Amino acid sequence: MTTLGKGLELNKHATFRKLKADSILYLMIAPTIIYFLIFRVWPIANMRLAFYTFRSKGPWEFVGFKYFKQLFGSPAFYSILRNTLIISFMKYILMFPLIVLFAILLNEMRSHSLRRSVQVISYLPHFLSWVVIAGIWLSFLSPSNGAVNQILGLFGMEPVDFMTSKKAIRWVLFFCELWRSIGWDSIIYFAAIIGIDAELYEAADIDGAGRLNIIRYIILPALFIPMVTVFILNLGFFLNAGFDQVLNFANDSVLSTIDILDTYIYRLGLVNGQYSLATALGLIKGVVGVFLVLGTHVVSKKYTGVGVW
Amino acid sequence: MKPKKNILAQVIISTVMILIILTMIIPILNIFAKSFSDPALSPSMSGLRIIPVGFDLINYQIIFSHPVLIPSIFNSLLITIAGTCLNIFMTTSAAYVLVRPNLIGKKAIMVFLICMMLFDPGFVPEYLVVKDLGLMNSRWSVILVTAVNVFYLVIMMRFFGEVPNEMHEAATIDGAGHFRIFWQIYMPLAKSGIATLTMYYAVSRWNEYFRSGIYLLDSKKTTLQVILRQFVVMNSTETIVRAQDLLDYNEFAKIDVNALKAATIVVAIVPIIIFYPIILRYIKGGVMTGAVKG
Q1: Looking at the structure, do residues B277 and B153 belong to the same domain, yes or no?
Q2: What residues make up the domain containing A14?
Q3: Is A245 helix (H, G, I), strand (E, B) or coil?
Q4: Integer distance in angstroms from the first to the last C-alpha of chain B?
Q5: How far is A266 from chain B (nearest CA, A)?
Q6: Does A139 touch chain B (CB under 8 A)?
Q7: pLDDT averaged over chain B?
Q8: CB contact (8 A) between residue A105 and residue B45
């Protein structure tokens, strides 16, 4: 007993001494911890507002699931959920192979100067703000003399006002997102391709494999891990669907086809002041989002052995 | 037979890639061209044109004569610079701590940070915190609210992780404390990592429009992107064109609202274009140089 007690005592001392010696380290990370406590944990605590009615003075009034019932009872909720899922599907699933294809084509380019120009230009849109992009696209798609309608005109087609067309607007979002991300998002795949061992190519050459076979048997397998990782992260974003883009591309004629959860939350909460309703929807979205990431991660880890961490 | 097929494939691939980058570069150059064009000619200018029709600086004269533009640029710069400094200060010091081996509580801190990254509380709960802190209408709101990005923190940890531990031990034996080791060994050795993160943080600071629009209601404190959004996206001409100018210039047909929008967009893009070569240098150094291979 005495030896054990002594050991514990020693251990405690050692721990204490280590903590003391490292105190400066805790001081260095303290600002970050305090930041998250104030700007993340406190807002998370504020999310209890979903179950209360907001009062600017005095305590909030507890109302239970009133706001959740109100949400699920409104038809707007379902059409917005539908829009969110459709737009996410287009952006995260439909676009996914195009970005991989871009990386593969980039790697197939033999002219190095041309390849570099493609890289330099295709990464640029990623660094522009969504407001700037909206401004550029409004002019790009303008029905009077925007570039797209000018080209359609060459083929004898009537000008289309894409921005106010309910049929076209989701595809506008899709192509604009592609325009902004194809270069930047392909970097991860391109890096994986150039990381492929040169010996593999040499062996393939000796075997007389053509380019298509090289792509199929060497390049695509090398892209598997980054593809799964990106896919899991994309699923985690599935309820987002791109708030900044929709906010800047929406107008009254098309809002009903592209209104998504986040823009709805923003309007409910910060425009109309319905704090509780907005928070309730935010809470649902946040919880489902976490489960989507964790769920896909676990499933993927089980079947492919690849996860986010 | 085979080489011929390869040449054909190359031609097709190159054409496709060139078409893709043309869709990116033409709209941007068209905006530049329109902003420098003669406003009498620019309304009928083709969207495919990348050279100004005529040449006139009147669009810039008009927007810069509005009292809101220059202060908003100043605010954007202030928030970008102060905010990025804060981002780098917090991210590097936290990353240094988190790469120390055997730190008690390290795992708990990491789990905490990853939870913070995964769960987004949403607009209203954050808005209420900013309000309760009395930060409404203060530039501090925008600066503080995005002080650390966990994603970038993890990247910084990777850069610091490459600093050999022996250097740390040697410095400790020489009697250097954590603060000195951090400043004199880690910061200089991870220079390229810090430069990369500075670029990422600065770009997102400069491009930020949403929180500035909500938290900085006073027109003296507003930022360039907010002005741009009001003018270009929400079509409120008076945010940037003085009523007097609208009257005076309209008489001489010297106003093309779309060209004015183009000029405002150019003002917001120019800093990005200026820094773009530096940004490129730090984008995944390996990706760009590795492109020589293959």
Answers
A1: yes
A2: 2-62
A3: helix
A4: 23
A5: 7
A6: yes
A7: 90
A8: no
